[in-house]
Amino acid sequence: MVSRTLLISALTVTGLLSTAATHAPANLDLSGLEKLGSVDERYQAYNVEMVEVTGGRFWAPYGGPAGEVYRELPPLDLANPRLVAMAKLLAPSLVRVSGTWANNTYIPAEGETVTTAPDGFTQLMSRKQWASVVAFSKAVDAPIVTSFAVSPGARDKAGTWLPEQAQRRMDLTKVLGAKIYAAEFFNEPNVPSAATGMSKTYGAADYAKDFRIFHEWARKADPDMKILGPGGVGEGSLTKNIPVNVGLGAHISSTDLIKDNPNSVDAFSYHFYGSVSQRCAHMGIGTAQKDQALSADWLDRTLQDYDFYSGLRDKYEAGKPIWNTETAQAACGGSPWASTFLDTFRYLNQNGVLAQRGVQVVMHNTLAASDYALIDRDTLTPRPNYWAAVLWKRTMGSVVLAAPRHASPEVRIFAHCLPSKNGGVGLVALNLSKMAQSLPVQKRSKAWIMTGHPIDTKTIAINGKAVSFGDDGRATGLDGKTMTGPVSVPAQSIAFVAVAAANNPACRQN
After folding, report:
1. Which letter does DSSP use for residue 104 in this model?
2. Distance (Å, whole) CA 80 – CA 28
């Protein structure tokens, strides 16, 4: 039986794909859109938290005991054929295995038998578990990005960082026939006491000294590994309120982290969360508000942090690429609506605006853990943001174009060359309004209209039809609809449009 949600979607999309809507702009001249720049072919990437690999406490699902923040998770099965098949649809990509818990994770030496984490560490990661990360990375065409342990167990008696743990992981990766593609020294060093057991007196001078040791080690251990940094969080839109659930201790500004070691990274990295979830309401900095999810303030908050961190990049690492290595709807696992279609507008808007500003990689947190994940961990069911990620991959190539403007301020359009580089242009249009809007594409195109009723549903439709991922590892419902004229976008919906015959000079194969 067809669900009421999908029936409404089908009737809505069928009626509007061929009917003119309000606020129609002038015809879109896609051939004249200028090239703004380009992003990495692995631009749209994702995180698998270290605690997912090892198993341990992570953000608790909603609906548990009052005040529950964490819940014990078993290790994620990275060899699960369904999970692997879903990740393949996002390739080529990058998988970042890091997060707060990576700061205190111990990996044994070859032949060492350990059943619990040694003193100075909190978590134990077996060599077999890291091997599963490497196997997953190879299977889904997503090279590994990571960070290393910095807790007291990874230091000498004087408190100086030692590269032994990092070297073990790098050596094992090489034995398994792979390499670490890129690494931050440690996760979010501007909050150094975050789950590391480190002294709350750890300061900028300590970090500068440790980073020099890390830098020298990394260049010798693998000159091809990209060094990322500093990986700070929460210093733009949230100013001094850092969105991680920790007893903060001393906060070190990212300025102080990098000023003593300028021009020392291959790419400048930072993290971004616009707010925190209810799990961290006790921090007193406010939480993500559902009724503001489509507001300009919420959608554009990502630019405040970009402006802050890109300013530091320009001052201390001029000319270096900038990466956002961890981001999602809200820190601390995401709000209940992070897993719904309502958050897809933020997800795609962030992809679009950061690409326009030259950010090379955006790494969503997470692939399959907690409410902000692309995939529900328990059922391995794709969420709306996953389907948006798949359609972005199919329509938005690495060349970024100046986006055409729409007459309605509630329609946001982003334009890239199609991945095929045959002169074609891909568009993503976010209709934030409660009225249908028209995209006056005059050439033959293919459209995917993503709808959800109600807007905070976890089940979306594309062109009015159900979309799903089968047990055979195939996605269904992703067939685009061929259009020969304007594309109408229903109220509060999202359109992906591929115009292969746009004949844009910037989009021709070089």
Report:
1. G
2. 44
Whole-number Cα distances in Å, 506 to 36, 361, 379, 509: 10, 21, 42, 9
C-alpha of 371 from chain center: 14
Distance CA 154, CA 120 (A): 7
Does residue 384 carry a pLDDT above 90? yes
For residues 155 and 162, the answer to whether their CB atoms sit within 8 Å is: yes
Residue-wise pLDDT tens digits, 52-93 = 999 999 999 898 898 899 999 999 999 999 999 999 999 999
Other beta carbons within 10 Å of 7 = 14
Contacts of 320 (CB under 8 A, 6+ apart): 265, 266, 267, 268, 313
Contacts of 321 (CB under 8 A, 6+ apart): 40, 266, 267, 268, 358, 360, 361
Q: What is the pLDDT of residues 163-211, one digit of tens each?
A: 999 999 999 999 999 999 999 999 999 988 765 778 878 899 999 999 9
Q: Does pTM surpass 0.90?
A: yes
CA atoms of 88 and 93, how far apart (whole Å): 9
Go through the domains of the chain in sequence order and give each one's CATH number.
4-38+400-507 (2.60.40.1180), 44-366 (3.20.20.80)
Pairing of strands 411-417, 70-73: unpaired
Cβ distance 133 to 48 under 8 Å? yes
